[in-house]
Amino acid sequence: MVLGSSRGEKLSPIKLAFVQYGILLLMLGLAAGLWRLQVLDVDSYRVLAEQNRIRKEPILAPRGKLFDRENRLVVDNYPSVTCFLVREQNTNVDADLPLIAQGLDLDLDQLRATLHRFRSQPGYQPIPIKLDVTPDEQAFIAAHRNELPELETIDEERRLYPRDGFAAHLIGYVGEVSEDDLNNPRFAYYEPGDVVGKAGVEETYDELLRGKDGSREVIVDSRGREVGYFGIEHAEPGQDLKLTIDNDLQRAAELAMGDRNGAIVAMDPRNGEILALVSRPSFDPNEFAVKIDRAEWNKLITDPDHPLLNKAIQAQLAPGSTFKILMSVAGLQEGIAQNMHIVCTGGWGPYGYYHHCDRKHGPVDINTAIPYSCDTFYYMLGDKLGIDRIAKYANEFGYGQKTGIDLPGEQSGLMPSAEWKLKNYHARWYPDETLDVAIGQGAVEATPLQLARIIGGIASGGHMVRPHVVFPNQLSSDFNKSIEDSFPGTGDAYIPLDPANWDIITDGMAEVTEPGEFHTAGSAHLEGIDIAGKTGTAQEMSHAALEKTNKGRATNPNVWFVGLVPRRNPQLVVAVLWQNGEFSYYPARIGAQVIAAFVNKKRREAHNLPPEKAAAPVDVGAVWTTPGAGPDSRADSSAREKNSTIAERNLGAGQIHSGHFFVDGNGIVTQKADAAKATPKPRTGRTTPPAANSAKHSPQVAELAVARQPARQKDQ
Amino acid sequence: MPLRRFLSFRDFDWALLGLVLLLCSMSVLEVHSATVHTKFASFGTRQIFWVAAGVAVMFIFAKIDYHRVIDWAPWAYGAGLLALVAVLSPLGHKALGGRRWIKLGPMLVQPSEYVKLILILAVARYFANLGGRSVTWRDILKAFALVGVPMLLVLKQPDLGTTLTYTPILIAGLFLGGINLRQSLILLTVGAVLVGGVWTSGKFLKPYQKARLTSFVNPQNDPRGAGYQVLQSEIAVGSGGIWGKGLEKGTQTQGYFLPIPYTDFIFAAFSEEHGFVGAFFILLLYFLILMRLIQNAQTAADLPGSLIIMGIVAVLTFQIAVNVGMVIGLMPVTGIPLPLMSYGGSSVLFTFLALGVAMNVRMRRFVN
Predict the structure, then answer these.
(1) How far is CA B293 from CA A9, A124, A125, B354, in A?
(2) Which of A133, A582, A687, B332 fits A81 for a cystine, CB–CB 3.0-4.6 Å?
């Protein structure tokens, strides 16, 4: 036996007992570990386990819709599908990219770049690669579920804005909440990736429009695959809002403005409701509703005409002669202007520097000074009043202060005074400077909205209003209060005007639009409409400065028109700004178009006339069965006469036919000869809706709209 | 001739077998539960076959005189080393980032599992041959070489888990084989220095192995890497509570949050679905099995028998401690399966082989 020597030897019982106790201790230790996890900390581990397998998937709340004052839909939502790529769900994503790019109509390099940007993110992080997936592309994703498991889609609601930038500046747009926003306590509600109102009504009323997102509790496995779900917390849709704008008037204003650079504000001066608000150049908010691409964004922010700027409330420019209305109020209320009878010799220069008037108006008093827009008269009036009194009246009526409109980014304009100059330039006010201020030049700056409010208020006898774009009665009083606090301004005020002075000013403004010698806006005259107004022309800079900066190149002045209808207690005030528009009777015509549209609509409603309708026949494609093939059927007879193709087919009762027709109110007028032969066109890519082709409004169309008389032929 | 050798299955340790089979049925149950909804749904059934094969192998080895087995040890040791070298050669089968298997026909054999048993026998033989005289440093160095060579080969595969399983064999041999207190203190010091050296040198351990070894301390630091497994395992165990979530109802197990819930993390899966009560029951079974084995070592007829059984006890205890410790976040992730619970042919067969030898030792306790 090899091991003979070891026979009889035994392990020491002490050592074995030592081992046994060691094992017992070890087992107790392990049991204690189990006890700690499974008994003491069971709750926290249960929570972790639930977090592991339950994923909260947000259900996005549809944003509130926007309606115009007559409950016509302005901003809607539409269901949209976004495609995500989840790298974790496939091992070889890179090899799939060409197929994905092809199927989703993406640029391969751009797709690679997108993925590259996300390379440091964990693999389960979904990367959005295509927004607004088309049905075709959805079909592609569905068909490649097995080959491309990394593609995922999610349903969302997106904003659908009117085309062609209709009321774009008033409505604003939505976008993904930015890093800066998230740090702002106002956006405490938001999480990264949320959509938030970025401008206009979308921004101001975001809190109401956004609603409350719901969620769905989904059971997932470790690879994020859905294996079931628990419950649904439904989303609360955002509140619909009724805007004060009138779609008809907004359209008229958009058409009247055309492509010109500037802005229109149309407001009801009795209550401050904004009926139309246009700013040019405009932009398409739909570009923001889906993700705006970088090139488009750069184009928007580098455009020298600032398309994103809402010029109606953000352009601060010298108001020019429109300021003379305020001057007239000040002069009359102070009892100075009534007694001024001057002779305009083409200018005035009491302080050494000669201030020009654009004409030699001859004898002028307050009644003719407004329609003539005689600078000489106002130089003298301004000199008599002095800057302090002018500034007092101007401030009282709201120059240099925000109006408090419920739109973000309103500018206050500027009303200079001796005090202002001392404070900002540490210099004394020279009486000569008052002369520039008196004709709305110098340092005076105003926004179109301010002018609408001020001149509308003066024409209303001093009843000033707070402009707004959303009817306050649909908001809670708390929210109304917070809007007023967030957008402080001059608001509602009453500055009593002497009735005699009121008459003089409003009659003078009515004269402006009457044809007559020296009348500045005779071309804005509308027969049968009590229209009043005031034009304005203002250089962007002084002539001297212009010489320096532009090296003599002429820059057309900014031109203004503020129109009213009717002249006293107006129902509508329209302020028009045309930047570099040269002659002030141009914006007067634009304003007149808006006023005409307003008045025509009022008359139509008052007379209960049917709305204007295009008389042009409509092209209609149709499939029908001949009922009795009787000659009394007009459709049939015309079909037989006009279309040989169908006639050849031996028309009979119960037979199915097809063709194209022109149809008006009385039935079919003509039939397209080639219609029956026409074969369906092969599909060539994406079809463009016809409206997109007529993106540009032509001024002619606008003129047509105004020229049309309200009385229409009555057809039965 | 001395007394006639008398060998009977009356002396077979039926109690031990009962405990082992009870444990195996728990294993089959959990392997089935953890895999039934996956592509590995057949693993439960296959585990039954492995256990059946293991029991058969156990009976065969119970019949073979362990003295004969010990006589084979040098040859087996040589063959084991050859197999380990073969694994590293192109003959080896590569999977899961390591070269650990040899393909024998349709079967994958993991030699390092069987080398475990060979080492138990070789160490038992070595220390038994010292014949109770005090152990010299020379003896200790020889013992180190005996275990160290296969350890290095396995480490090369690389298979850190199995490498570490060889150390308790050596420690048990040294401790029970008769080293004195002074020697053991010196060895502990040297060992500590060596471990520190190995850790910092960076030559022996790959970075991922180091990461695995340390991530259990703060699994949150690396939630997607090595720490992920520990974290998910702790969540599985902890969320099981006292009574568990029920068979096939563990969310961590069924949702694939728990990595490989049928092998290394089977104890986490079992703890999740059967709670503290179930997990404690498993620990109790292990404790009883180990106590029974130690009792067999005590009653063994001679020193080699005792040393063999204690080697087996050392390996099993080490595996249980490391695996359960890993599952509850007290030990690093090393890839050591839980004996008799984890799914896998090599692991099950090794354990039953070892038990077979232990059975033989018990059956011969009165045979001298």
Answers:
(1) 18, 49, 52, 11
(2) A133
The top-level CATH class assigned to A248-607 is alpha beta
Q: What is the pLDDT of residues B287-318, one digit of tens each?
A: 999 999 999 999 988 888 999 999 999 999 99
pLDDT exceeds 50 at position A647: no
- State residue B155 phi and psi, 5-degree precision: -60, -30
Cβ-Cβ contacts under 8 Å, B298 against chain A: 11, 13, 16
Say if CB A300 and CB A469 are below 8 A apart: no
Radius of gyration of chain A (CA): 36
Domain boundaries, chain B: 9-363
**C-alpha closest to that of B266 among B281, B278, B251, B253:** B253
A232: Cα separation from own chain's centroid? 34
| A82 DSSP β-pair partners | A154
Question: Measured between alpha carbons, how far is A505 from A469 in angstroms, rounded to an integer?
Answer: 28
Tokens of A82: 């976004």
A157 φ, ψ to 5°?
Answer: -105, 130
What is the four-CA torsion angle of B31, B37, B40, B41, rounded to 10 degrees? 70
Average pLDDT for residues A184-197, to the nearest whole number?
73
Measured CA to CA, the distance from residue A430 to residue A355 in angstroms comes to: 14
If you classify domain A56-242 with CATH, what class do you get? alpha beta
Cα torsion A26, A27, A29, A33 to 10°: value is 140
* Amino acid B265: pLDDT: 92
Tell whether the model's pLDDT for residue B36 goes beyond 80: yes
pLDDT digits (tens, 9 = 90+) for A110-155: 888 888 877 776 666 677 788 788 888 888 888 887 778 788 887 8
Phi, psi of B131 (to 5 degrees): 70, 30
- Using left for φ > 0, alpha for ψ between -120 and 50, and beta otherwise, residue A68 falls in beta
ipTM for the assembly: 0.92
Q: Residues of CATH 3.90.1310.10 domain(s) within chain A?
A: 56-242
Q: Which of B271, B302, B317 sits opposite A6 (nearest CB)?
A: B302
Question: Are B306 and A19 within 8 A, CB to CB?
Answer: no
Q: Which of A315, A308, A316 is nearest to A169 (CA)?
A: A308
β A618-625/A532-538 pair status = unpaired
Which of B234, B256, B303, B323 would best serve as a mutation to test chain A binding (most A beta carbons within 10 A)?
B303
Q: Which residues contact A192 (CB under 8 A, 6 or more apart)?
A: A177, A182
CA distance B327 to B258: 10
What does the alpha-carbon distance between residue B238 and residue A43 come to, in Å, rounded to a whole number? 8
SS3 A516: coil
Asked if A432 contacts A477 with a C-beta cutoff of 8 angstroms, the reply is no
A62 and B330 in contact (C-beta within 8 Å)?
A: no
Chain A residues touching B251 at Cβ < 8 A = 49-50, 52-53
Which of B239, B294, B322, B324 would best serve as a mutation to test chain A binding (most A beta carbons within 10 A)?
B239
Rg of chain B over Cα atoms, rounded to whole angstroms, equals 21
Model confidence pLDDT, tens digit, residues A574-620: 999 998 887 878 888 899 999 999 998 888 887 755 555 555 666 66
